[in-house]
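Q: Please design a sequence for this.
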């Protein structure tokens, strides 16, 4: 590519060929005018995605990982090849329409202290999806993965964690954002670095946002940009204490422990809604 693109869009695929095709079509028909570099990383899916991209999307850069190294490791393979002024991390289950990339780039251009941002995510029925959060307390993941979360005091904490006290109608700084759709400034990426691939799945987005704040940049929820996210929360398939033994929960617990160990004794960024809590 002879000129520096405005954005490098990185999509991680793992056995999601149909969703990936839909996402790539959305990018090509969304009406976005910014110069785009599109990179698809495949985590050893063997689902025909290689052939589909070669046939239908020849301008896409395809990176094949020989193993499924997890979300952070896969995204990092794409980040290493990104050349844009901004990098966009995108899940294949995001529906792209109505120029979201143009509007996110415009927002970042107008807010030079924002290093990392994400749009409002909607469920397929149009309701607002949880995608901006306050930083965890030590036992937050346990509360979310077990019936303990139904206890009155803990239920209040979980509502605060998912920011249900915020109407999601205005853009604002937040502690961290769901990694399904993120835009980061290239300058910020040079300071913060790639995702921590010790997190196979879960907490890599929390960690990236926390490191962004710690590096002196802001993390923002951009309410005026909306996208539909066909998110499937796997933990919902295993209700009650039985869910603690489900495979997704085991991965979540391992990442939770790595996160706790990494930040043991490290204070939260001073901006944080919990930075001054005991």
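A: Design:
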């Amino acid at each position: 590519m002879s000129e520096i693109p405005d954005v490098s869009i990185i999509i991680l695929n793992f056995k999601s060929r149909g969703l990936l095709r839909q996402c790539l079509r959305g990018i090509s028909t969304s009406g976005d005018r910014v110069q785009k570099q599109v990179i698809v990383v495949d985590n050893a899916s063997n689902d025909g995605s290689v052939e589909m991209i070669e046939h239908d999307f020849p301008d896409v850069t395809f990176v094949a990982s020989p193993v499924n190294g997890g979300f952070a490791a896969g995204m990092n393979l794409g980040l290493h090849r990104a050349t844009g002024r901004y990098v966009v991390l995108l899940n294949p289950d995001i529906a792209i329409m109505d120029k979201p990339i143009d509007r996110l780039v415009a927002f970042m251009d107008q807010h030079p202290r924002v290093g990392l941002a994400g749009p409002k995510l909607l469920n397929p029925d149009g309701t607002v999806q949880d995608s901006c959060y306050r930083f965890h307390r030590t036992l937050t993941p346990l509360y979310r993965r077990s019936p303990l979360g139904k206890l009155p005091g803990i239920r209040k904490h979980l509502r605060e964690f998912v920011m249900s006290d915020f109407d999601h109608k205005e853009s604002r700084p937040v502690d961290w954002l769901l990694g399904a759709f993120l835009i980061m400034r290239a300058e910020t990426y040079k300071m913060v670095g790639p995702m921590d691939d010790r997190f196979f799945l879960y907490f890599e987005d929390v960690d990236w946002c926390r490191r962004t704040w710690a590096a002196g940049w802001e993390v923002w929820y951009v309410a005026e940009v909306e996208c539909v996210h066909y998110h499937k929360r796997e933990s919902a398939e295993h209700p009650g204490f039985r869910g603690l033994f489900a495979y997704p929960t085991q991965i979540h617990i391992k990442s939770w422990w790595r996160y706790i160990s990494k930040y043991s004794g490290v204070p939260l960024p001073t901006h944080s809604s919990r930075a001054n809590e005991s």
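Q: Thanks. Anything notable?
A: The CA atoms of residues 43 and 68 lie 5 Å apart. The longest strand covers residues 218-229.
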